[in-house]
Design goal:
single chain, about 500 residues, alpha/beta, FAD/NAD(P)-binding domain, 7-stranded mixed beta sheet, 5-stranded parallel beta sheet, binds flavin-adenine dinucleotide
């Protein structure tokens, strides 16, 4: 599996003593995925009456590439193009998707094509277009450690510069008043399948690496796809279309009860608005933890077009009589897995509702088993004594996406902002591209203290929660004031 970081051989953070800063930055971003790219774009476009921010963003990969192993030809973004890097915070920004299309002379075909969702590959191209034009983005730079320098009241950021092979080339250090952590997520492999994932002789591939291994996978006699999310569905459809009728030899297994539709109603999706984020953040920690698993329904499942395309493709294959050799079974857990004779894989399956177990022999497995937040612990190890944690040891994060740090740090005006590591405090919207511009704007408003990006105070028709003891509502009304509903005791 190539889910490993680009430079596995790098040394751990150099334990050099704190140094005097050269030119400190106002903001250093760690990781350049859509989240920090959005922040870099909006930071670059601050209104002229404000002092420009001195920024630097570091990314361990050699160039901007968004999920390159999953850019299937027919795969589309699950959000409209308005959820680009900037538009929902600043529709006048030059870094919008529409301006990218204009620059590429594609605006009119886009308009006549009435595409409401854009291909994943187009989103990748758009982000690279932004990345190629923004200053102060440093690729092939892996950040190793962050620490606080009390003498200079700055964060020190240690990085390793990587060569073309991803090997350490040079070590460096920069100083900054503020940090934005945008290290994203890493492919997740369930425990029972981990021993298989590194087997060189049998292809067991995470969906993240699908396109790299597609040709080899297609030579396998029988293929199993595990996972019923959007990626699992897209990969299953791609394999199905590539196999001859009657000889598909495919299994699609899912732990979920059904190959289900993901939430797509406008009212349902209001759970991904800033209003809901604010409401969720204000709930007690224990309540948030209870609600979090249920929020998965907002991201899990498959869009209607992909489910319909799978059904159409299967149906087309029944035209001449007979059924395709494809087995689609939900409600199944893979308990354990092992190799058979070095070339085959045996999956031990369980159907809990039916209380049955069986074995499946297959020649290749694709794990469409999702992603998990990259842990921040190693990166922030030196800051541990300054970090405030919740009852289960996770970092506390305030409504402006700031880690709760010792006042000794924050009263100097320095902060660490997080992007996409705040699901436990901000809810399901944390990973949603539709909130990226909002979050970047919120961060820049807090960091500059000058509200360069005024944000709407109301973003949903749904009112989340009841009024508070003084009649205040969450969220505030469109004029910024709180409503007047009366709080009833009891
Ligand atoms: C195929 C696919 C399609 C998706 N489609 C949608 C969608 O339609 N709508 C939606 O809302 N969400 C979607 N998502 C989910 C989510 O929006 C994306 O995963 C998005 O890329 C998250 O952005 P990010 O910037 O937080 O993290 P990432 O894109 O993961 O970027 C983080 C970056 O940080 C770098 N990094 C990590 N550690 C370091 C370090 N120490 N030093 C330097 N660099 C580091 C990594 O190399 C990486 O490039 C999709 C996810 C996938 C996999």
């Amino acid at each position: 599996m190539s889910a490993k970081p680009p430079n596995p051989t790098r040394a751990t953070a150099p334990s050099t003593p704190p140094t005097a800063p050269g030119t400190p930055r106002d903001l250093v971003g760690i990781g350049i995925g859509p989240a920090n790219l959005s922040l870099a774009a909006l930071a670059h476009g601050l209104p002229q009456h404000l002092q420009p921010l001195v920024t630097a963003f570091y990314e361990q990969r050699p160039a901007f590439h968004w999920h390159p192993g999953q850019l299937l030809e027919d795969a589309h973004l699950q959000v409209p193009h308005l959820a680009d890097l900037v538009t929902l915070a600043d529709p006048t920004s030059p870094w919008s998707y529409l301006n990218h299309l204009r620059d590429q002379q594609r605006l009119y075909p886009f308009y006549f094509g009435e595409q409401h969702r854009i291909p994943l590959a187009d989103y990748d191209t758009y982000c690279r277009w932004v990345s190629d034009r923004l200053p102060a983005l440093h690729y092939s730079h892996q950040v190793d450690a962050v620490r606080w320098n009390p003498q200079h009241a700055l964060f020190e950021v240690d990085f390793t510069q990587l060569d073309a092979d991803g090997e350490a080339e040079a070590l460096g250090r920069t100083h900054t008043k503020n940090l934005a952590l945008g290290v994203g997520t890493a492919p997740y492999v369930p425990e029972p399948l981990r021993p298989l994932a590194d087997a060189p002789t049998v292809p067991v591939i995470h969906a993240a690496d699908y396109l790299t291994h597609r040709e080899r996978l297609l030579t396998a006699d029988h293929i199993t796809v595990i996972g019923s999310g959007q990626s699992g569905a897209e990969i299953f459809l791609d394999l199905l279309r590539a196999r001859p009728a009657r000889h598909e030899k495919l299994h699609w297994l899912a732990r979920t009860e059904a190959f289900a539709l993901r939430e797509h109603s406008a009212l349902g999706l209001e759970h991904l608005t800033p209003d809901h984020t604010r409401h969720f953040h204000a709930l007690p920690e224990a309540v948030r933890d209870r609600l979090a698993p249920g929020q998965g329904r907002l991201h899990r499942g498959v869009d209607a077009d992909t489910l319909a395309a799978i059904h159409d493709e299967l149906y087309r294959r029944t035209r001449d009589g007979g059924w395709p050799d494809a087995t689609l079974t939900p409600g199944v857990t893979v308990r354990t897995a092992g190799r058979l004779a070095g070339t085959k894989i045996e999956l031990h399956l369980e159907h809990a509702e039916q209380a049955t177990r069986s074995r499946l022999t297959t020649d290749a497995v694709i794990l469409a088993t999702g992603y998990r937040e990259r842990p921040l612990d190693q990166l922030l190890a030196a800051l541990d004594p300054h970090l405030h944690r919740d009852d289960t040891g996770r970092p506390r994060i305030d409504s402006c996406y700031r880690l709760a740090l010792d006042p000794a740090i924050t009263r100097t005006g320095s902060n660490i902002y997080v992007q996409n590591a705040e699901r436990h405090t901000h809810g399901a919207g944390a990973h949603d591209l539709g909130l990226a511009a909002w979050r970047s704007a919120t961060i820049l408003n807090a960091l500059t203290g000058a509200t360069p990006y005024p944000l709407p105070t109301r973003t949903a028709f749904t009112t989340f929660g009841l009024p508070g003891p003084r009649g205040e509502r969450t969220p505030p009304g469109p004029d910024g004031s709180h409503g007047t509903l009366v709080h009833l005791k009891g």
